[in-house]
Amino acid sequence: MVLRGYVPTSEETLQTLAALRLQSLNSDFSTHAPFPRLEELFPPHVLHARLPPPPHQPPAKCRGARLRAGLLAGGLWGQALAKQRAERDQRLRGRLREEGASTMAAIVEKWKLLQGMGRPEAMAAYVALVREWPGFGSTLFDVDLHASPMGAGPQRLWLGIGAKAVSLYKPGEPEPLDSFCYGRISSFGASDSSTFRLSVEDRDLLFETSQVDEIAQLLNTYLTSAGARQLPRPQEPPTSPLSSEPTVLPQGLCPAATPWQHRPPVGSSHS
After folding, report:
1. What is the extent of the structural domain holding 9?
2. InterPro entries recorded for this chain (predicted)?
């Protein structure tokens, strides 16, 4: 969850989490300790976000302009552009290495401060920091909210499904844009193979997603565990809540646990 960017928190906290992971893996700081790669400790997208965006290339507006651009691209001008791009890419790679080295140095300094902390304590401190996010314990799904009546285009969101509520997050934001307890949900289901419908009181929300079935299954699971009435999916009979088969929670964007943990899964509904 942390490395893939699905725990919205400050960069300072991300560095502390990385230091706690090093303490758990290697115990106290030592120059002889095996070092994981930075991307195994710290979200890579945070470093990439520091780089300047690529320059905007305006599209050619007419056939003549496209023809001239094609002719230029095949000559000295095209070679000059290719050289500029190569130099820019080299500068960006250098900048990324610098940012990575600076971040790793900050993580190591925090690691040194953890001297004497045992592995169980480091793991407990790690989980305690992650738990500070209000969405902790939810399963997150990447969805596109369909265009609103105001004419806006689809909006990329996180759909968080937890034990008590369904929440909508702007990616990277710690607080939800909206949250619906299960008592407010009147129906839900698949409008088609890639569209999930969620009816909340007098509102219908349509989400474009590749995980329609996983979302519906997880909602059914939480409604059943809460003792609520199960809601049938469109054109399907209701599922009996008395099924003897064990329920398997589907995986969203957040895996239930990482290999170094021996505590209950971070993303589980029991958290």
Report:
1. 2-51+86-132
2. Actin_motor_Myosin, FERM/acyl-CoA-bd_prot_sf, FERM_2, FERM_central, FERM_domain, IRS_PTB, PH-like_dom_sf
